[in-house]
Amino acid sequence: MAEKFDLQEREVWDGNYAASQALRQARVDVVAAYPITPSTPIVENYGAYVANGYIDGEFVMVESEHAAMSACVGASAAGGRVSTATSSQGFALMVEVLYQASGMRLPIVLNVVNRALASPLNVRGDHSDMYLGRDSGWIQMGAFNSQEAYDLALCAFKIGENHSVRLPVMVHQDGFITSHTAQNVYPLSDEVAYNFVGDIDPVDDMLDFSRPVTYGAQTEEDWHFEHKAKQHKALMDARPVIDEVFEEFEKISGRKYKRVESYMMDDAEIAIVALGTTVETARVAATELREEGIKAGVVAIRVFRPFPLDQVRDALENVKSVAVLDRSAPGGAMGAFFNEVSAALYSTASRPLVTNYIYGLGGRDFAVSEAKRIFMEQKANADAGHITTDIQQFSGLRGPHLGFFQTKRS
Amino acid sequence: MAITSIKNLKEFSTNNDRFEGAHTLCPGCAHSMIVRELMNCTDDNLVITTNTGCLEVSTAVYPFTSWDTSWMHIGFENAASAAGGAEAMYKARKKKGTLKDPDSPVKFVAFGGDGSTFDIGFQWLSGAFERGHDFTYICLDNENYANTGGQRSSATPIGATTSTAQAGTHSYGKKEKKKDIVAIMAAHGAPYVAQLAPNKWKSMAKGFQKALETEGPCFINTVSPCCTEWRFDPKDTINITDLATDSLMFPIYEIIDGHELNILYRPKNVISVEDYLGAQGRYKHLFKPEYRHVIDEIQKGVDEYWEMLQRREEARV
Lengths: 410, 317
Ligand SMILES: Cc1ncc(C[n+]2csc(CCOP(=O)(O)OP(=O)(O)O)c2C)c(N)n1
Ligand code: SF4
Known about the structure:
heterodimer; A: seven-stranded mixed beta sheet; about 40% helix; B: two-stranded antiparallel sheet; about 15% strand; binds thiamine diphosphate; binds iron/sulfur cluster; oxidoreductase activity, acting on the aldehyde or oxo group of donors (chain A); oxidoreductase (chain A)
């Protein structure tokens, strides 16, 4: 039996520590991991909990991230609760296995502490790694602060292991901004947390020899399409399950999560759509602008995969001008997030104006003043009835303005 | 419990049916013989992982499977990590008491081809051995990437022609030496490492049993003649294997705890490598006069290696 870990009603935790406490409370059986800044402390802490008897589990320190996810796949198929953490290059090295994990429908929880991808080498946060995983068949959720990193990690096990879902889940948090900033966190007691997550009930347990299972079979054109379609449907069908788990979590914690979270959107005319810590910055900016009578609001995407297209559309269809913020190098296109939000808005009657802001790459600070400036550009668009700037702009960049795709004025 | 006495080939070949005959490996492929020899030497529950390659693509083509035990394929390089992960979970669940049948013995086995073992998967294999997972890794060494159409691997011997190390008017085929994977794995300090061959079924069964029963990571390299890429008649697989072991191109031996070497088969009449090379299409070009020196070089290498093995066995170091 594990040693009791003393928890206060209020703790001061950074996002990494918060995520690692969720692993302890969920009684994760196996963590297989490889270190990378800024996610390293999550798995180090799990190792320390094992070393000090706070958890009965196996900590497998592998030789690379590819092996970490591979071992997680083997461990998960062997019927227990499995988790790991990574960032950036480590995430990139895992990508092959991310697809294998989701294709085998294994409910592994991966804490991703977002960080830019090299080159140039950079340890600070942006969402390049999150975007790299967006088609890998994992559920992806974003935590905007330490409390949420803890809460969502607990929810992730319950969502992924649900028998109608059976999918791996990533919980993202912003590198350094969340992962290394200590904040007040209100943990649940060990009992309440574990009762919420519950025992894992594996579906195809490789250690149940009364029913041998074959994992990772080959399919060609005769079946592959059907398998991928079913996997996609499973992701889509996870949406109500995610909602239910969030509602259940609210009952035990008083903290409310939604797949799309609207802030002051009821009568908003202009909006920022964002992910990660930027959401809180944008909310502060919107609050301040409201005092000046500007009807600003913020739409936060809490669950990025499965993409909540209908909820994004409903949240935004009555605004006049929308700024979509992408914290990832767009690679010769519009930001991926911009494309998805625009697609959601295309089917609305009102078709709000949409502008794409590339910001905060490699950990560049995103200040309230910058959010305000973006809001004011939306106001100018709303007043003019058309986009008054370039459709895609780099925000907060040194040197001359960098923008692309001039609007056609009517 | 593992079977310790194997009376005769008939009993051995019908002992255990956890690998079904209905697979799509080439007729005459030695991979299936080796898998059966493993399955038939133990009654323990088996968790098997397999790297991408001929064995994998031919035995689990949805909606069919040849595996009547827990089996997983993930990727080309990572069966060793997956086996290690499953083994870690076994330990965790045993401690917690969440296993369905905690008392029946379970063994973890990973299969790889020589391509996945010697080349792309080597890092994963080495890591799993360093960590000391309790599993057995079996390399099906057919000396080429068969599944992608016969490219060179670092297990391909000097002088063989492959699709990416071709013999031609200016080349006698592969120019580099075969990587000594057995020595490399023994150097990990693994408790049991062996090189075996499916024609020597008794020593193969014993080697497998030792590996399964030894705690910690065990490695077995087994010759697996590939009729398609080595170019011989499918009915001759075992004959070719006999030539391989009797010419000492594939000496059969084990290394315990990284140093104690035992030779497991000493041919009564050692044949020349020429007899082995001449029976396969992949070495046909070596019999042209201009490439005679390559055969001599191969013979020299085999003689020196056999000498080294005997000295090591004698010296017990
Ligand atoms: C990462 C990756 N690279 C390449 C491949 C293509 N590939 C599949 S099997 C194979 C060769 C297998 O050779 P080997 O391991 O020797 O096994 P064999 O088929 O000879 O039994 C290759 C190159 C792959 N599946 N994955
Ligand atoms: S190509 Fe060679 S290794 Fe592959 S199935 Fe055929 S005989 Fe076996």
